[in-house]
Amino acid sequence: MPKNTVKRPRQTKNKKYMLVRYGRMNTLGFFEHHETKISKIKTRVVIKTDRGLELGYLVGQLTAYKGGQFKLSDEQILDYYDDSGIDFAPDHVGKFIRYACSADVSEERHLRKIAQEEMECCRQYVKKMGLPMKIVDVEHVFGGERIIFYFMSDGRVDFRELVKKVAQEYQTRIEMRQIGSRDEAKLLGDVESCGQQCCCQRFLKLLKPVNMRMAKMQKATLDPAKISGYCGRLKCCLRYEDETYTEQKKQLPKKNTRVRTKQGLGRVRDTQILTQLVIVEYENGDKAAVPLEEIELIPASETTKKKQDNPPQKNKQNKQETKKK
Predict the structure, then answer these.
(1) Is the pLDDT reported for residue 19 higher than 60?
(2) Which of 190, 262, 271, 289 has a CA that sits 20 to 30 A from residue 39's CA?
(3) Pairing status of strand 258-261 against strand 264-272
């Protein structure tokens, strides 16, 4: 079936689901609910996950619901998030409990303040125990069922004793989660050099690899200070237009290819991918930018034949000198 074909939603009979973004890592998931109407404004919701009670943000409230039912099928959602580079699992994560009230939001602010104290306490234990790890952030789940510490380390760390001490301190379940430099940026990042909030923090979930080839193809400066993001690695945005650049580059001739234009014969010296211009150097040494549609490639067979018909003058002189000897 073609990708553009509209598929009918296949939701479980007599069950309604809403899409919610929740947690410190901005996870997306479906939650079962029994509401007949969905709020059209930015809405906070209280949900139940395997971690306990959590606060989240309702997603797609303006266009994605009809009569409280999410209109798009799992396949359509996966197509959308796959195209945008966002990792999404269509599994039904948990249940919707209620719309959040002002008291819930106030409680969330209070937990954030407490979380800072919990992080400082954990850092002190790490320092005393001499563990090779860096506590980056902490998440105190809304319902109080657990506290999640995010840390960085060069290798594996035996943190069992640390978990025991912190659990005794706060009398709740403790979870330690190791992350990388890009995840650190996702948790702590703010505004990038473009003036926008870090992509990894605002909407990206799946942080796909970015390499130097992408920067070179887009002719971006190779100064590490300018092409590196908050995390110290190549900016995620270098990946966004890579597919377009790759497709456009395939249409352009390679360097040193012989071509024919209205001005005469020449060789390709450079190309401009987005504008689809070819820099041609003519036999008289002049250079000009020529649109791709005005370029005619000279077949390799024609070039070879010309060489055979007109051998280099130097070779002729060498042969004559050899005969004289």
Answers:
(1) yes
(2) 190
(3) antiparallel
The secondary structure of the chain, three-state, reads: CCCCCCCCCCCCCCCEEEEEEECCCCEEEEEEECCCCCCCCCCEEEEEECCEEEEEEECCCCCCEECCEECCCHHHHHHHHHHCCCCCCCCEEEEEEEECCHHHHHHHHHHHHHHHHHHHHHHHHHHHHCCCCEEEEEEECCCCCEEEEEEECCCCCCCHHHHHHHHHHHCCEEEEEECCHHHHHHHHCCECCCCCECHHHHCCCCCCCCCHHHHHHCCCCCCHHHHECCCCCECHHHHCCHHHHHHHHHCCCCCCCEEEECCEEEEEEEEECCCCEEEEEECCCCEEEEEHHHCEECCHHHHHHHHHHCCCHHHHHHHHHHHHC
More confident residue, 180 or 159: 159
Q: Give 279-290 pLDDT, tens digit per residue.
A: 999 988 899 999
Q: What is the pLDDT of residue 13?
A: 55
Q: What is the pLDDT of residue 168?
A: 94
**Cβ atoms of 260 and 280 closer than 8 Å:** no
Distance CA 28, CA 56 (A): 9
> Cα 322 to the chain's mean position, in Å?
66
Question: How many other C-beta atoms are found inside a 10 Å radius of the C-beta of residue 229?
Answer: 21
**Token reading at 298:** 């000279």
Mean pLDDT, rounded, for 21-31:
85
List, in order of start, the domains of the chain with CATH numbers. 16-100 (no CATH), 108-179 (3.30.300), 183-243 (no CATH), 251-304 (2.30.30.140)
Contact predicate 70/17, CB 8 Å: yes
Structure token pair of residue 30:
């479906």
Distance of CA 104 to the CA centre of its chain: 32
The model scores a pTM over 0.90: no
Measured between alpha carbons, how far is 23 from 42 in angstroms, rounded to an integer? 17
Q: What gap in Å lies between CA 47 and CA 22, rounded to an integer?
A: 9
Q: Contact at 8 Å (CB) between 45 and 98?
A: yes
